[in-house]
Amino acid sequence: MTSMGSTTFEITINLIKLVLVFLMMVQMVPILVWLERRGSAFIQNRFGPNRVGPLGLVQLLADAVKFLTKEDFAPDKANRFMFYASPIFALIPASIAYMAIPMSVPLKLESATYLIQGFEINVGIVFILGVSSLAAYTILMAGWGSGSKYSLMGAMRAAAQIISYELALGLSIVGIILLYGTFNLTEMITAQQGILQFKAFGYTMSNSWLPNWGVFYQPVGMILFFAATFAESNRLPFDLAEGEAELVAGFHTEYGGFKMLMFFIGEYGHMMIASGLMATFFFGGFSIWNLTPQEVYQWFFAHTGSELASNILNTVVHFVSYFIKLAIFLWIFIHVRWTLPRFRYDQLMDLGWKTMLPWALANTMITAAIIFATSYFIL
Amino acid sequence: MPLGGVLFITIFIGVFGFILIRLARLTGGMAKRSSQAKMDIYECGIPAQERKDTKMSVKFYLTAILFILFDIEVIFMYPWAVNFRNFLASGAGLFVFASMFVFLAIFIFGLWWEIKSKALEWD
């Protein structure tokens, strides 16, 4: 178990790293908002932001200036403490959970090894699930603190939806935990490196090019997990919390300016957690197709001849690999949002409780039975 | 301990958010005039309805109670799942496997009962 470091220098580096990961997450949000608006324009055949700067990229800056120059006030009926505190609290669960996801192989320098993640936690999955579901409290705080009917209704819907899909989310990864026998995300990624090999009843089925990713063992779990994360991050087709047709904007009806931007950071942060976890559980995390980090390191070492340079390059290349996987899932999130229509509320609840929960249960039981059968009858 | 890091970043984000909100309040300024209509909560055309006038469906509370029940059952499966291979290796596999299936049977019976008693119907 790696601690925060042994010397003052290491502790300082680790704390700075935490801040950097947080700022990276915050900086992703304007880019994602731009991508979302350009993507929606592309998908729905209309114009996105295309006036400010090349491809509308400076729109982000213009938006930030506009957010900053908005007058900031709370309605008379609002509970001022909750009204102002909930946007701040919305940032915390998303960013803390994101920091527990490993983003690259540890960087080995001469003196010490630095993990490319906020902090390594041995019970990573439990920590991430526990922390990220605290977002329900922020939403309830915002809805209750606004003092408005629409906010409260949106918040209640959002909370009911988040907790309902929490069950399917939690159950869908029991199969993955059974498979790898660990809660630690780094160990999980290590288990997924190399080439796909099914071992059963003494036979080994192997091939030469498919990677050893979790998705080949848990396809049903993958689909259930991904669908449940859509509901967890309040994205279409599960965005009943802010159904514009019925509730004006859901729990952030009364919010504007910078406070609303902070809710957006929270929402996009949850998308990034979901994408990072998808990559980690089912698509090999930061590892590169068919290659283990040792092989990549040796390739670099053979070409550069310097240990330090190959360590740094190894870390950078794996970070790029992780980032590509993250970007693919984020793009799927955006694509689905602008493709599918919204559910009705009873359909949403039925899907969560009566369809996804039984499927996740069946997935768990079948996975357990197969693991039991393959190991028990050989022994 | 990583807990130190968690505590540090929690406080950091809290201070960061607080400063941002204060900053936005400074740069945004205050309008010269204020009116009752501006300070009211949102409503379209009719007098605004407050939080205390709002009645929520009892289904939300029912969903929350059922969630607590089922979520605890799901959490019980985590330690079992993480240790399943160790139990298989030590030879206690059959017992652990069968006992979890009894547990799952109770879980499924609970879910079936819940669906049958129409606790999950939203109309």
How would you summarize this macromolecular structure in one to three sentences?
The complex is a heterodimer of chains A (379) and B (123). Chain A is mainly alpha-helical and 379 residues long.
What is the N-to-C succession of helices and strands of chain A?
Answer: HHHEEHHHHHEEHHHHH
Sketch the major β-sheet of chain A: 2 strands, antiparallel
N-to-C CA distance of chain A: 33 Å
Tell me the radius of gyration of chain A: 22 Å
Total DSSP helices of chain B: 4
Arithmetic mean of pLDDT of chain B: 83
For this structure, the quaternary state is: heterodimer
The fraction of residues assigned to DSSP E strands of chain A is 5-15%
Biggest interface found: A-B, 81 and 73 residues
The helix content of chain B, as a percent range, equals over 70%
Radius of gyration of chain B: 26 Å
- Please give the number of β-strands of chain B: 0
Q: What is the spatial order of strands in the main beta sheet of chain A?
A: 1-2
**Overall average pLDDT of chain A:** 84
